[in-house]
Fold this protein.
Amino acid sequence: MSDLEREIRRALKGMLDPVEPVRSLPGNTVRRAKVRRFLSAAIAGSLVVLVIAATSWAVIAIRQGALEDSPRVGGSSPAPDEAAPPRLYLAGDGELWMVDLAGRARHVKLPELSPGDPPYRIVRRGERLVAWGYETYLLDPELESQPQVLINDSLFFIPSSRDDRVWVGIPDSDSQEGGLEAVREVSVNGQVTVPDVRPPDGKWPERSLDDGLVFTEEGQKIVWDPVTEDVVFRFEAGDLGPTHGNLIAWCNASCESVNITDVATGSQMTVEPPPGFAAFDVWAGMFSPDGTTLALPVRRDVRDIDDAGSEVQLGLVDVTDGTARVVEGSNVRDGYNFVAWTSSGEHVFFTGGVRFEDRSIVVYRMGDESAQLLQVNVGDFFGAAAL
Amino acid sequence: MRVRTSADMVGARRRFRTKPIENHLADLYSTHSRAAIRLAFLLTGDRDIAEDICQEAFTRVGGRLGGLRDPERASGYLFKTVVNLCRGHGRGLRRDRQLKEKLPNPSANHLPDVAVRDQLSRALMQLPIRQRAAVFFRFYEDLSEGQVAEVLNCTVGAARSLTFRAMERLRNHLQEEER
């Protein structure tokens, strides 16, 4: 046994031996356990009855050929032909615009959307919207009700790899460098799906994958499992882009090609720009909801950070074969280029333009020949999400 | 070690169901309440919260005693529940800071290496909860790596890794204190 081990044992004994439990088992614990057991049995019994009833109903309905025509019961998501029309949400400072495909914009004051520079300002999570404004808010997609505080002690959020969740960073008040005391995964229903756990060295997570959170450590990217607190994967990468499941897109500084790494298998794909184009902006990209397409800005010249007047277009990468194409008619000005897929994956919005000047917004419906410019006037926005 | 078969488990369940729940809970309580409360105290740093968590853990385990696939593993289920409740309590790290202030100063009747122990006690409370739990099971409860893995619901490799990294942190902490 090592000296350290011996010291640990002594320290634990010193700390814990004086801690004694209540001498006898409290009566209310037994009573509560009995009630709990009774309720468990009752709930299990009820579920069995419900399952039998539902199965019987389904069998009868199928036999009568009535299932296809019957209305949905209890489902929260509408049938495809009843789906809400695609909408783009643009988050500004203290205000928000909702833009539809006809180019109509609805503007609302939203003081909760305060200035700042969070990693993500507004994201779609399932059929909900999560926005940042020093707290993490849940927004009503219809903009009929006030934002609800989802988490009130978070420094920022990043979207989780699970579609209905976000990871929030809880600040460490003792840290001089803005370190984190914990990260926590929360669903849009407010349920904590992964309780607080301290990230490596209090660092901010950069992305979320199915296998864990991505951090930078000594020039490498690490995938850290917040449940086991183990580093499960390491890889060399430059600027990180969007993620989907265990896929992460990234590129080097000039972004003349995009790499897509699968951290579950370690496999990697390199994608070249479409003919006539020289570079991508991977950091502004977004995977389609089914993960088969990566939409991101493409440019004819390698990025010149002083040249904010140039044009970019929307590129689509087929993740299954690694080919990229450009969407005709998707030209927008360089600047605030946001890509936002609708939850169905049928439409993708693309924005451009700089602060205090006109912004441009195009929308592309998958399968169409070209994108459409939306004739809409909106103010300055710094984040976008679509439903 | 003899491999437990499903017949063993069925036999155990039959034997188990012949006794009323309060007897099982009383057995479990007399055998494991001390370890459970110490674990909860180590993970939360607060005696009152540790008591509450233990009561809740015994209530939950008691409520499921009849339904456990292998009732003889009720203690493992109890410890898992304690760890989960402590994690779910969600304010562990903040409480740790309070605990650092609360930790009693070592008294004169301690061993000569009391300074090291004091440093270690404080360093222990700064470990992530799962590392702290791994240290508890490994060095206080003297469980094997396999048993630690079972209680922490992870692989043996992950349990070993948790313990190893906890010791690394403690070692670094002591070295930093020495400087």
